[in-house]
Amino acid sequence: MSAQPFSLALWSRIERIYAAILRHPFIAGLTDGTLEREVFRFYVIQDAHYLREYARALAVAAARAPREEEIAMFASHAAAAIEVERSLHEGFFREFGLSAEDLAATEAAPTNLAYTSYLLACVYGGSFAEALAVLLPCYWIYWRVGEQLLGRGSPDPLYRRWIETYGGEEFADVVRPVIALADRLGPTLGAAERERAIERFVTTSRYEWMFWEMAWRQERWPLGER
Predict the structure, then answer these.
(1) Which end of the chain has less Cβ packing within 10 Å, N or C?
(2) Which one of 2.60.120.10, 3.40.1280.10, 3.40.50.2300, 1.20.910.10 gives the CATH number of domain 6-217?
């Protein structure tokens, strides 16, 4: 088994995906202020749907965690995901004149549903290591993207608020213990379980790119919505 920290082994498998995320026109549009408001509006609604399901997945991870501190961490993160939805998104919703009824009337886009369904299937059906690996990209990629964009800023105050939320030290303090947990867990894994965890991590990293692509294209269901 490699002496390399497990987190580095994980990240090395997604460097190309992360580079593609940074090049994505949605991300570029946040920093230069050219992202169309309608595209960001679509993203905000879909992200609210996503965070609700992500909170469920975190709650399941808390229930499956082997140690008390990990139970407490994931339970608090599940609550925080709901709080982020309520605070950050409510501010965005006010900006767009959206209500809770508008959110309820808009269904999850195909990519969003596929991503959250995969998350929940893995945290329920896989090992705890797989649950951690499948959840980690959302934490880690958002932090790295926010950190990268923080230096660039944005002429648009709405987009600057998004960047500062994920690039700030408060969010970093949430992410670092999860990465540290991956490093503690890595040496305990057998070869097969390690590879399954890496596969989960890579798959949800791909879904992270797909989520921004979904928002950029304002992806709709074929054959009409419900």
Answers:
(1) C
(2) 1.20.910.10
The per-residue pLDDT for range 20-55, each reduced to its tens digit, is 999 999 999 999 999 999 999 999 999 989 999 999
3-state SS, the chain, equals CCCCCHHHHHHHCCHHHHHHHHHCHHHHHHHHCCCCHHHHHHHHHHHHHHHHHHHHHHHHHHHHCCCHHHHHHHHHHHHHHHHHHHHHHHHHHHHHCCCHHHHHHCCCCHHHHHHHHHHHHHHHHCCHHHHHHHHHHHHHHHHHHHHHHHCCCCCCHHHHHHHHHHHCHHHHHHHHHHHHHHHHHHHHCCHHHHHHHHHHHHHHHHHHHHHHHHHHHCCCCCCCCC
Q: Which residues are catalytic?
A: 138, 208
For residues 143 and 57, give the distance between their C-alpha atoms in angstroms, rounded to a whole number. Answer: 19
149-193 pLDDT, tens digit per residue, is 998 999 999 999 899 989 989 999 999 999 999 999 999 999 999
* 8 Å CB contact between 50 and 211: yes
Any idea where the domains of the chain sit in the sequence?
A: 6-217
DSSP element (H, E) containing 174:
helix 169-185
Cα 103-108-18 angle, rounded to 5 deg: 115
